[in-house]
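Example 3.2
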Amino acid sequence: MTNVVDALVVNAGDSAVVSFEQLVPRHWVHKTLQENVYLTSVARQSDNKFLCGAIIPQLQQHFLNAATRPAENILLLTEIARQVGIACTHRLFNVPFNFTFLLSQFVCDLDIHNLSLLRNRMINEVTIYMTMRDTVDGTTEKLTTMNSDFSFFYEQKLIWRGKFDWSFMPSKRYKRLRSLTRQKQVLPSNNLPPLPTQVSWEAQRKQRGTRSPTASVLAVSSDAVELVKEATLVVDEQDLFFFDHYCDHVPGMLIFQGFNELAIRYCADSAPNYVTQAELNFHNFAELNLPVRLSVLGCNSNSLSRSVQLQATQNNHLLAQATLRVSNLKEI
């Protein structure tokens, strides 16, 4: 697995710069519901270095686990990093709010040692350092890219770090990209309907209604009695977390959560476990109207953890690949 960016040295005085008093506006992080906003402050330290604050929600269904705390949920911390990157790009690089952001790959891990030292603490906020590299002026009509390094701290102890590769583009270019990818990925015989517009999607959602997130995003065969190696991703457009706002494809965070659940199910014969390290690469868009299949390709193990290789496919096309480290609670 690729090494994550080295941790930063934390300046104790930085805590005075970070605020946790109120959430940033929803549109800064591309959210519709206030309950899905976790970012609280954004400050620029230099041309490409940023200092941010975020809360750790304690009651979100997708982040609850009887054996671990929300601060140990790698999906939650990855979502917070996503919000930090989007907000900083808009607010501090003047990228228009109608641009589309696409996450192409990321690698991240939890700091097991420091989390064990904080085992008896309720971690309800984090101080975040982010460095942006290879940025391009977001006002251009060309495809632009950004690489971001993140380090999350609680009481000056590193708890999570990650490295993201992004692209962002104006809506016209994004629509052309989606049209081209659908032509390549989807067989003519499937006769997929046109992509929903934001107006039509919101109208359909209003008609269907919404519901709180469910405990699992996987549909597993009822005759699966041994290790679960395959599952279908549950794409529920009424889900208030993954489909907080209009999206014309299956969100990458939903695929990530499916990978997390499948890896944990696959390792279910060991002690209670959770994902502590992840590396993901997204190759293609996942259409809303076709099944997404998740599969375990292989696994390497030692006494405390397993490295699980997975893939997501749709209509025989590769959507994403992942390597997840699943660790048991003996580590913390």
